[in-house]
Amino acid sequence: MFELTVARKHIVSNPKMVLFTVLSVALAVGVIVVMMGLMQGYREEIISSTVENNPHITVDPKEDEDYIYLYRTLSSQIWQYPNVVAVSPRLQGQAGAKYKDQVEGVSFIGADPFKEDSLMNVQDDLLWGDYYELISSRHSVIVGSELAEDLELKPGDDFYLIRKDVKIKVTPAGFIRTGTNFDQTLVYLPLETAQDLLNEGDVVSQVGVRLSDIYSASIITDDLNSRTSYDAQSWQDKSRDVLDLLDIQKIIMYIFYLLIFVIAGFGVANTMIMMVSRRTREIGIMMAMGTTQLSIVKIFLAESLILGPPSALFGCALSYVTAKLIEAYPIEVPSEVYMVSKMTVALTPEIYAYAVVFALAVNFVAGIYPAYKASKLDPVEAIATE
Amino acid sequence: MSNIIEIKKLRKVYGDGVELVALDDVDLVIKAGEFLSIVGPSGSGKSTLLNMLGLLDSPTSGDMWLRGQNISRASSKERARLRNKELGFIFQYHHLLPEFTSVENVMMPLMIAGVAKGKARKRAIELLESVGIGDRLKNRPTQLSGGQNQRVAVARALANHPSIVIGDEPTGNLDTKSSDMIYELLRKLNRETNQTFILVTHDMDMAEKTDRILRLVDGKIVCEMLREGDHFITHDLCELEHQ
């Protein structure tokens, strides 16, 4: 196609103009990609910390009941679903811990160590000790690291768990540090011991579920809720507020990207208008030789489009380097406000794809008007231009 | 010899407010293979007439036939096609594309016509050799003299075997030697190929070397001179510019 030949020649003959166009779009692409990456990274961090520290699905008792009685039946029912990798019926409650003169409030979780460890990776978070001791010893417990500190508890020190008129002597089999505020109040017990403490019989207060695909959580909870009268909630239900906020942020960012798009577009359009202006006489001659108006449009559009991919490439390279820099020099973020402790940039293939599309789109849209104006030149006047 | 171009009552009027009549109901018949010139003072309308004949511009009113086909109201696209296939232009200034070499410049009309690159290149080289500049294929216009560039321009005008070659002061920018050389070239081509040549010129010496001289004043043809042998026979009210 001769239009491409001409377009290529134009580009090669005007390296400075080409450079400006490519740089401006590359910069725009770079900024957008990094911003998208930051947003994505933030979202991923929030999700992963939510998902790490909580079960993917929790099933709470029926509306008119305080506890789940038929938890074994419920567990087998849950195991029928795909993607389920752990199901742990747990009995949670409040109690007091007394060691010598220290008394602290405790939130205890009574569960089967095998199941609970599959659910929450308890063993990995232990500072010392063995969670599985709770299987053989009914009075072994795992104590949150900060709770232990507050009680001035040392390994081997027995202490008491008290709830209403029940008082049980227990021995720490390990201390746990989850990195969350659970560490101030958490005590893991064997399920039977917790049931003794609560004195409501063979019941649990919740069934926790872990999945291999976190995004199947809502389908499963919807199904459970429709089939049973238990109250099943996915991790998304529980973090609804945060996720909604992220979605709103996303929309605001899209407006921002649009603005960048427009600004970059003006840069390209400006350069192309200048190109056309410089080549007015040439366009007249081409028309005299029989180039149609459509061909003229094609030539100049081709010129701006050809520059799309290199711009995208530079932009992506720029963003890649920037992303690496951001991650190499950790910028600390106040975790109370942002819920994460560092800035991460997640550059997924989709984001790069957006970048390429963006670069092509900017070049195309910005190139349309100049190309159109070029085709509308009057050949006689154009040839007569100085 | 058939009529290659015929125009009847061709009129071109410019103007917002004050009207300027550039061509005033011009009638003209040109036969295929003619070698004619159009002369006249500045503002006489010769460039306008040339733009009409070259399909670069459309008339305000009147009719024009090209090879018997009425093209007075042809679309922009159709005119572009005809410019590419039937017409070749030689301008006063060579107007070659500055970033392209001689070969590439001559190839351009061929590529616009959709001819494959290889074939186009071959024809371009043939043409450049026929105008005596086969040794300057890879040079850009800035690397060639005025005369050399004009020869490239002639080759380009001939690229698609046009029926009509139009020159607007083709030797206007050249010294006498190059001028003569270009004229000889055009003459030779006219004799060999029977293509019609229409030259606008202000140089009466050049005009008197053609076979037919049309004199335009104020948008009207006021005088026509036809060659007979060594001298001209005048028609209508004419004044010879010099004896």
What would the keywords be for this entry?
heterodimer, A: 386 residues, alpha+beta, 6-stranded mixed beta barrel, 16 helices, 58% helix, B: 243 residues, alpha/beta, Rossmann fold, 7-stranded mixed sheet, 4-stranded antiparallel sheet, 11 strands
Offer a concise description of the structure:
The complex is a heterodimer of chains A (386) and B (243). Chain A is α+β, with helices and mostly antiparallel strands and 386 residues long.
Q: How would you describe this structure to a colleague?
A:
The complex is a heterodimer of chains A (386) and B (243). Chain A has helices at residues 2-13, 15-53, 71-79, 113-120, 133-136, 145-151, 191-198, 217-227, 235-238, 240-278, 280-288, 293-306, 308-328, 335-338, 349-375, 379-384, and strands spanning 57-60, 84-99, 102-111, 126-129, 140-144, 159-163, 166-176, 186-190, 206-211, 231-234. With 386 residues, chain A is of the alpha+beta class. Chain A folds into two domains: 2-51 and 242-384, no CATH class; 62-229, no CATH class. In chain A, strand 6 (159-163) and strand 7 (166-176) form a beta hairpin. Chain B has seven helices and eleven strands. Chain B is α/β, with parallel strands linked by helices and 243 residues long. In chain B, strands 6-7-8-3-9-10-11 form a seven-stranded mixed beta sheet, sandwiched between helices. A four-stranded antiparallel beta sheet of chain B has the order 2-1-4-5, with helices on one face. Classes of the chains: A alpha+beta (386), B alpha/beta (243). Chains A and B meet through helix 1, helix 11, helix 12 and helix 16 of A and helix 2 and helix 3 of B.
